[in-house]
Amino acid sequence: MYFTAKARYNHRSFDDNPDGLKLVWLPKEDGKHIPCLLYRDSNFADKKVIVYFHGSYEDLGWEGMTDDIVEMAHMWRMSVLCVEYPGYGLNFNRGIATPADIKLDACKVINYLRYDLGLRGKDIILMGRSLGTGVALHCSIAMDEQPCALIIVSPFTSIRDVVKDKNSCVGSLLTKQHFNSGSIIQYIQSPLYIVHGMLDPLVLV
Known about the structure:
By secondary structure, the protein is of the alpha/beta class. It has one domain (22-156, 185-195): Rossmann fold, CATH 3.40.50. It has helices at residues 65-76, 99-116, 131-142, 159-165, 169-174, 181-184; strands at residues 22-27, 33-39, 49-53, 79-83, 124-129, 149-153, 192-195. The protein has a 7-stranded mixed sheet, sandwiched between helices. The longest helix is centred in the middle third of the chain and has 18 residues, at 99-116. The radius of gyration is 16 Å and the shape is globular. The two termini are 18 Å apart. The model is unreliable at 158-166 and 168-175 (pLDDT under 50).
């Protein structure tokens, strides 16, 4: 479920991007930075921002990522901030990605928006796809103010259940219970929108 291949982008990939996308670096307490892809349009009246968490086989340079971000922004007329996971792309993390590190960096991005930029919970919409749904749900219950809304696309109940659904009972027993969305979703208080294709080959509906 965790993809840490060679980055599909570099520090200059989004320079002079024709769509206006920018690679931004949000600070962490340890002096390091989290790469994020930002789309903003001064014509958008709404100051809300969609914080997007991508799927497991993607990074900020994944083909189609830029189109998805721009389409989301114009559909809802809001800024979109796509977060890179540790171990993915240019978010170097000893070459590995762990659930704990992914959750930690995601929450640091939310805290930066909340406390450094002064956004309220009502100004933030959390959105995740596939692996990102577990990240979005975790951030939602970790926030001191509930987000405006939560959108999850192709969600799963847990990583262990995904392995089990693929007819691997032994594998499910050996897989730790990461991103246990099925248990924590009951604590979500914000408006929740779930989107899932009926023919998804990986995560069964």
